[in-house]
Amino acid sequence: MAETKLLKDLIALSKTCSFTKAAELRNVTHPAFSRRIRDLEHWAGATLVDRSKIPVRLTQEGRELLVTAEYIVARLNTVSKKLKSPGQDTSHALRIATGRYLASTLVADWACEMSDVIGRELSVAVSVQIRTGSTPDMVTLLQREEVDFLCCYEHPNLSIPVATASFQYLQLGADRFVPVCSAAKYSETAYDLLDEFTPIPHVTYLNTLSLHHILSDHLRASSYALAPVAYCDSVEVAWALIKKGRGIGWLPWSVVAQDCTSGTLRVLGGRQNEVPFEVRLYRSKEPLSVAAEMIWEKTTR
């Protein structure tokens, strides 16, 4: 059996496509790293790396060995963490950090589906651990490896402090903020976003929320005559106040679609008044637990 460090070398090379960068990642000199890859090729009895082109790529044999290498390293990491933290086995757990609203909607649906599917394949119960808080705090949990995944909003106005050199992501969903008001209130007061002079009561978000930053550029660039009447710390609170007729506000379409269809809420303006955004799922580039790796693989399909 090849030494574990050689398998980790192969994984590093597959990620960086560069002997120099992979050597830096593995904290060895370039010549030493090259020798270790040759040792692995000698053990495998096959050429694992195509060195004829820059950036370098793994050969078919190299890619086949990579699959096994990633599996072995992931299992060893899982066992190591289990031995170091008795009573806290996370090999069959889905650990996610996210915001409060996402935790109760998109993340909850995705986590339940994935835990059921992977649980059936592994013939074990896959538990779900969801931790919520501010995005910077959730990023810290991911960096400390206290969670496997971070699910958060993505928009040009947001600066998610996740270094892409160490983490990767995929788009888990997409949505858009839509200006809405109570349909009953609108029948009394016809809010007009084009009216630059008549104040419109505005239910908005605290500036500590990602939602505030997603909307900020759009609202600053507009000529809406908005008069804030409430500052909310969650979508749920803003949604409740708007339904009670306290004012207008921008809410995710996924939240208000049913209310708008039923006539409880009314959409104001058109597409030009909406703000699209996406939801991303981040993970470390280092191997995760068996269950987490399987969940990532199925989510990327």
UniProtKB/TrEMBL annotation:
PROSITE patterns assigned: HTH_LYSR
Domain of life: Bacteria
GO molecular function per UniProt: DNA-binding transcription factor activity; transcription cis-regulatory region binding
Keywords: DNA-binding, Transcription, Transcription regulation
Positions of transmembrane segments: none
InterPro entries: LysR_HTH_N, LysR_subst-bd, WH-like_DNA-bd_sf, WH_DNA-bd_sf
Keyword Phosphoprotein part of the UniProt annotation: no
Domain HTH lysR-type: 1-59
Pfam families recorded: HTH_1 (PF00126), LysR_substrate (PF03466)
Similarity comment text for this entry: Belongs to the LysR transcriptional regulatory family.
Protein name: LysR family transcriptional regulator
Organism: Advenella kashmirensis
